[in-house]
Structures are given as C-alpha cells and as structure tokens.
C-alpha cells in the first residue's frame, strides 16, 4: 500500500502534535540520517575509492532541511558532499533551525554550502563533475504546477543531465505530483530518479519510478499501533536496521 | 587516549555553541539512537526470542534524556522497554523537551514510564524481573560525592543486584568519578557495568571497567578537524557504522 498526499500531511502534523511530541529537529535528524545510510548502502559498494563526491540540492522547505542533515551524515560516513542551497539567507531567516544546520555543515565539517542562486551555466559546471546528485528540493507537500523560477530551472537542469549521474530523490521526486506521479515540463523533460528514499512511508508517486530504480524507506517514526490507526501496513524492517530496501 | 571531565564539558558546550550549531534535540536523538544500536548489537544475538525486556533508569539531566531516547529506539528495534524516571513531573517542567520525549514514549509506543519515585522494595521487584538494565542516571557532568537521596538509593540497589542482569551504562557508570573511576559506597558497594556506551569520545573513567565489560562509543558529533583542535585522536569507525566497539 502507498500513502496519498493528504494522509502524508496528516501523519506529519500528528507526529509533531503535543500528543505525540516529536520535534522538527528530531524528525529531520532521523530522516536525513536514514537518507545518508540508504545512499551509503546503495552506492558505497560500487565506488572505487573512499570519499566519493556528491552534490546535494536543498529546496526551500523541510525536504531541503532533510537534505542538509543528509549531507552531514554522508560526510561522517566518508563521502565528500557539496551543498547547493539557493536563497539560503532568506530561508535561514525564516527558519533559524536551517541556519543551525548550515553552521554545522560549514564550521564542523568544512562542507561547501553554495548559498547564492547559481547561474544555470555555473550549475551546469557543477553537475558536469558529479556522479551522485541528491534531489531534496520538494517533498510530500509539493503541489504542481511548479512556479516558474529558480527551482523549476534547477529541476529542468537536473532532468537534462540525469543520464550523467545517479539522481537520488528524498521522499518524492521533485516536481512530481505526490499522488499522480511524473509531470513533464513544457520542454518535454521529467526527472526520473535512480533512487528514491521515502520517509516514514512510501507515497503513491513511488509506483511511477522506472523499473530499475532503487527504492528505500527510512524514518522509523511510527509505531505499529499508530500505523494501524492510519490504515497503514507496517514495513518489515530487518532487525537492527534504520532503513529498508523495498 | 581518553577525555577528562573538563574537556568533555567543553566539547559539549562547543557543539551547542552558535559556531557549531547543534541543538540539544539533535545531539540527544543521535546519542540515544547510538546507545540503542550498541545494546542491540551486543545483546540481541544472545536473546532467545524477540522483544527482550529491558529496564531504563533515567536520571535528572541530559544523561537521563539520552536514556529516554534510547528506550524509544530500543522499542523500534524490537525490544520491550520499561522506563523508570523518578521526579519526572518536576524535570519535565524544568525542561519541556524531556516532556516531549516522555509523550512520544507513552503515546506513540505504549512504553510504560514510571514517573513517581518507587519505594525501594517496589524497585527491587522490577529489578528481579530484568535481564537488562540501562543506567542513564548521571553522565560526564556528575561530580562525587553523591547526594544522599533517590539517586544514591537507586545506584546502591543497582549495585546490590547487578549480578542478576546485564548493567549497561550510558557515557559513564553512575556514581563514578568521571576522571578517577569507581566510588565505593559506605556499604562497600560500587556499580560495575557489563557494558558502557561512551558518547562522543571515551572518558578517563572507562579504563576502570572490569576486563570482561564491553565498551562501545557512539554519537559521531565531531569532525576530524574538530578532534584535532581538541587534541583528540579520531576513532576508527567501520564504514557506514554509527557505533564502534572499542
């Protein structure tokens, strides 16, 4: 079974309600960690040397925050991440926790965080150097049509270049309709990730992944009791594991 | 090499400084998670069936908070925890985040949290039923002598009964001097844990563990650069691992 966008939003809201008591900091930490663990499990084995480069594109909301946390844990696990965080200054003012996440990346881990919005030819140069790109632009709360602007440009660029690297989407492929799947741009392009890491539970759009794509779930935030209450069949995680390959 | 208590406190303060940007919620989440992973790795294999019982004793400060998070992740990993959290009401008023942690335990996971202070014979009955007890009473900021009262009573009870279960201490064995090791009570008792999970980095007192004790480290909060700045030799974690057995 798969979650629709309404139920995904409801579950997220419930988790952070006074009844269940999770904080954004906790959920984001565990979500980003599980993304890093999944990426490390899927690709570390086939990387020839240690410290493979990886480019994380962080969007304006909590999906972007998950990407920031993911970048930190990737570094801890031996990767060499660069973070692209357009409009960082404005976003960090709006949500001070994003600012803390960026501080830890820069000051503790010397991770380069690109905080201005790149010209498309500069973004192209970055993409030309990558074997792995993490799409943490939009998550389960995104609703098409996408607004013309920096994020639609980035997604278009990603779609144009996606055959040159592994594209890894967090929670849902950016620009997709969470319930109905891929959206083709007016230039006939769509993002088609090689890997998806669903958080909490897979969404409807995951059934539109290409057959050869890897699909993981992470973010073990809900109990069996809670799952039942929401009509969800619990995933069968292996003992001791924080992620599951579906 | 091992950390003394002054350096441990300084590092903790630095992590949550505006420069490095970690929040208490993040650090506690990752610390408690690594404790659960270490316990699960060390003991899950020798437990005959799934859902082994485990009793977590949470103290008044952040070491207690680590224990609360550890209890949740143990449940997620298939254990059956009961939490003993004396003075819970007062502590949760002082630090609302502890209250959130308790809410998640109770409401999401149906974990029993004993929030009043147990009579010693009632505590004895709980201890009589355990094969695993987690000591998350005091951490690196504890300074002996211990004040006579509920926590000294609990530690004494633990020491009396420790041969009947596995005692697992978080960060430092409770009641010990973080720099100089075990403190023998006036009744001639001392806590002598079977397992220690050091957080961030092992403290001086860890060299006084009994030879057969297991020693893990978790809480990968610091970079190699930061470690060097504090004169610490980074631990050699296995690829992809959040914990290390020392």
UniProtKB/TrEMBL annotation, chains A, B:
Localization, per the record, is: Cytoplasm; Mitochondrion
Query: Which InterPro entries did the record assign?
Result: YjeF_N_dom, YjeF_N_dom_sf, YJEFN_prot_NAXE-like
Gene Ontology cellular component?
A: mitochondrion
Cofactor binding annotation: Binds 1 potassium ion per subunit.
The UniProt annotation places K(+) binding at: 63, 135, 174
Q: Which residues bind (6S)-NADPHX?
A: 62-66, 139-145, 151, 171
Q: What class of enzyme is it?
A: isomerase
Instruction: State the UniProt keywords alphabetically.
Output: Cytoplasm, Isomerase, Metal-binding, Mitochondrion, NAD, NADP, Nucleotide-binding, Potassium
Q: Which reaction does it catalyse?
A: (6R)-NADPHX = (6S)-NADPHX; (6R)-NADHX = (6S)-NADHX
What Gene3D superfamilies has UniProt attached to this entry? Answer: YjeF N-terminal domain
What's the Enzyme Commission number for this chain? 5.1.99.6
- Coarse class of the primary localization is cytoplasm
A GO term, aspect molecular function: nucleotide binding
Swiss-Prot/TrEMBL cofactor(s): K(+)
* This protein's record includes keyword Cytoplasm: yes
The coiled-coil regions, if any, are none
Ranges of residues in domain YjeF N-terminal: 8-234
- Its job: Catalyzes the epimerization of the S- and R-forms of NAD(P)HX, a damaged form of NAD(P)H that is a result of enzymatic or heat-dependent hydration. This is a prerequisite for the S-specific NAD(P)H-hydrate dehydratase to allow the repair of both epimers of NAD(P)HX.
Q: State the PANTHER family in the record.
A: NAD(P)H-HYDRATE EPIMERASE
Q: Which family does it belong to?
A: Belongs to the NnrE/AIBP family.
**Protein name per the record:** NAD(P)H-hydrate epimerase
């Amino acid at each position: 079974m798969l979650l629709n966008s309404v139920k995904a939003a409801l579950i997220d809201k419930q988790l952070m309600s006074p009844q269940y008591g999770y904080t954004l900091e906790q959920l984001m930490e565990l979500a980003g960690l599980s993304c890093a663990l999944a990426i490390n499990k899927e690709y570390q084995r086939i990387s020839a040397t240690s410290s493979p480069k990886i480019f994380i594109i962080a969007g304006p909301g909590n999906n972007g925050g998950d990407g920031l946390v993911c970048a930190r844990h990737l570094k801890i696990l031996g990767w060499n991440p660069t973070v692209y965080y357009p409009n960082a200054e404005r976003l960090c003012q709006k949500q001070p926790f994003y600012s803390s996440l960026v501080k830890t990346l820069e000051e503790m881990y010397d991770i380069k965080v690109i905080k201005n919005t790149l010209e498309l030819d500069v973004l192209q140069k970055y993409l030309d150097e990558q074997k792995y790109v993490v799409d943490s632009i939009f998550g389960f709360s995104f609703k098409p049509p996408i607004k013309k602007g920096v994020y639609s440009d980035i997604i278009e660029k990603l779609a144009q270049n996606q055959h040159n690297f592994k594209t890894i989407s967090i929670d849902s492929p950016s620009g997709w309709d969470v319930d109905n799947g891929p959206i083709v741009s007016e230039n006939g392009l769509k993002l088609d990730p090689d890997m998806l890491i669903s958080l909490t539970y897979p969404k409807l759009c995951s059934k539109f992944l290409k057959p050869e794509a890897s699909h993981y779930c992470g973010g073990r935030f809900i109990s069996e009791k809670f799952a039942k209450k929401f009509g969800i069949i619990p995933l069968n995680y292996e003992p001791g594991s924080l992620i599951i390959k579906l």
